[in-house]
Amino acid sequence: MTKIILYVFVALALIAGFFSFTNYKQSTTTNDYKSIEYVIDGQHIKLVNGVSEIPAAPGSASKIVTRYFGNEVRHDLNGDGKEDIVFLVTQSTGGTGTFYYVVAALAMPNGGYVGSQALLLGDRIAPQTTGMSREVGKENIVVVNYADRKPGESFAERPSMGKSMWLKLDPETMQFGEVVQNFEGEADPSRMSLSMKTWVWVRAVYNDGKIVTPKKSQAFTITFDKDGRFSATTDCNGVGGNYTVKDNKVSFGDMMSTLMACEASEEAVFTKLISESQTYHFTSKGELILGLKFDSGSVIFR
Question: Nearest Cα to 194, choosing from 245, 138, 237?
Answer without folding.
Answer: 245
